[in-house]
Amino acid sequence: MTEILRADTLRKSYDGFLAVDGVSFSVREGELKALIGPNGAGKSTCFNMLTGQLKPSSGEVFLRGARITGKRPREIWRLGVGRTFQITGTYASMSVAENVQMALISHHRRLFGFGARAWKLYRAEALDLLRSVALDDQADRPCSVLAYGDLKRLELAIALSHRPRLLLMDEPTAGMAPSARIDMMQLVADVVRDQGLSVLFTEHDMDVVFAHAHHIMVLNRGKLIADGNAEAVRNDPRVQEVYLGG
Ligand code: ADP
Ligand code: MG
Fold this sequence. Notes:
This is ABC transporter ATP-binding protein. The protein has 9 helices and 10 strands.
């Protein structure tokens, strides 16, 4: 499989404290990869260096071989790296479909324009996207009445509306009940399979990670201590030490 993203010896220090300490890894095309680790391990800091939200203290990030280190978030997003946030940025009073249509407008601005015909095209595309996250039956309901898990699905549809080749999801199942977590990641796994995009996500529920991720990386105190398939990572003594305390 072709490599889409590569992080090379990334470091981030906050006033001398090394939150991320020389992390190197890659994500391949069509891969669903998890970044796990205890609270404070440096997962979000890592993510924010990939999306351009944070400038690394040192190290490089490459997208399909081209250096993107230090580029602005907007530019990295334009190059095909999407992200979902822990807090949803939806318009509560608009319908589910309209929220996706708004995202499509910013994606297609130059292509379709703003007229009634364009709005219809956006509507059709929005419904397609909602179907891919199993939310088309809620298309005309206002966002304000959505259940929490459905809001997370909507957030995924909005991220997909920009047609990313790589999607970064920081704790996509935060705040969900265990069974909803599994469902959400099943959905992400289906999208990865159907659309051939790559997803890198963080998660603290191990069951979710081992059920769905193709590969798993474990971060501890700013250092990667494992990077491999579920079985290798599960059996790694250093990982067991971090998660089971011995
Ligand atoms: P995780 O996402 O794995 O929980 P974070 O990347 O959020 O970890 O944080 C890693 C470490 O860096 C933690 O010790 C945290 O307190 C520290 N940290 C995160 N952001 C900042 C910041 N803006 N300033 C100082 N320290 C920070
Ligand atoms: Mg975090």
